[in-house]
Amino acid sequence: MRSTVRRLFPALLIVVTLAAGCGPGRVAPDQAAVVDGAAIPMDELTRLVEAGRAPGAQPQPTEAVAGAREALQSLIVARIVLGGAAEEGISISEADVNTRLEQLKQQVTAQGGNFEQALKERNLTEAILRNQLRVQVAAEKLSAKLEPGQSDDALLATLGQRKQEFLQVHVRHVLVRDEATARKVKAELEGGGDWTAVARRYSTDTETKERGGDLGFQSKGETVPPFEKAAYDLAGKGTCKDKTSGRCASPISDPVKTEFGWHILQVIELRLPPVDDQLRGQLDPGLQRRRQDAVQKWFERRLKAASVQVNPRFGRWDAASGKIVDRETAPQTTSAPARTAPQLPVPPTTAQP
Known about the structure:
- The chain is an alpha+beta fold and 353 residues long.
- 46% of the residues lie in helices and 14% in strands.
- The protein folds into 2 domains: 5-149 and 277-340, Triger factor/SurA peptide-binding fold (Orthogonal Bundle), CATH 1.10.4030; 168-271, Chitinase A, domain 3.
- A hairpin with a 2-residue loop joins strand 6 (256-258) and strand 7.
- The longest helix has 27 residues, at 61-87.
- The radius of gyration is 27 Å and the shape is elongated.
């Protein structure tokens, strides 16, 4: 799915090691830190740290401190990123987060997993995941603003020159178990048989048989090689020949054997992909690196300018390293409830269940 959650969110955590400023002020007992005047509640930190704890686990004191610090550092970075993005005029809507969450769910499902079970196994909540995805979306929008890349006209010109690489084909098929049945299906369809009726009668593809075998649009690399070759060969025949967009009708294929069985297929529409960030990255291979460099420099500036105060029970914010480190002297004990001092292991640092 486009840029994965696994790759992007850890990159945000890495920037916490860069230099950051530390301004004056005090942190209340029920606050884990204050970033640019905005508090990170202790309860928020506790929930994040708990997400990394195995049920019934009792961490050692040193592990608990390290886990709390790492979790708090990630929250500090998130606040700096989101605050800086807002100052750049970038807003992150709930619809943006919903879209990214849905993409992640589809990834887990495509890999044969169950999303809810994946969250449970990692002791994650959807609320924590949404917060991490929100930061990821902000970083991506920032990168696009800082380094927009080539103009749409330039990309369209490149796309026109490389259209055969990016052409998408809309395919329908009937999948059967043996070649003899496949030839029978081909004969019926060439004789004027209705695709919906034929697919419903013969196809073993339970996902598509009720909609006439419609597989939707396919790009190169998305299907097994024999099927892909047959589909793109058909795209150059019939009324699809020399077209790059719109409805068309290729001939009906001969039987095509794959690991799933025997297919009879037809191309019914062609299109080129829209100019989006995924296509930009494919047409301009250096764009991702330029965007990463631009965002990294932006982070450095934001972190240096940030005012960060950390609750002394976790240590102190070191402006030179951009990390929470030990205090020179132990802080005074406070009367805050024990629940406000997380004593748990390292929380997850990626947004992927």
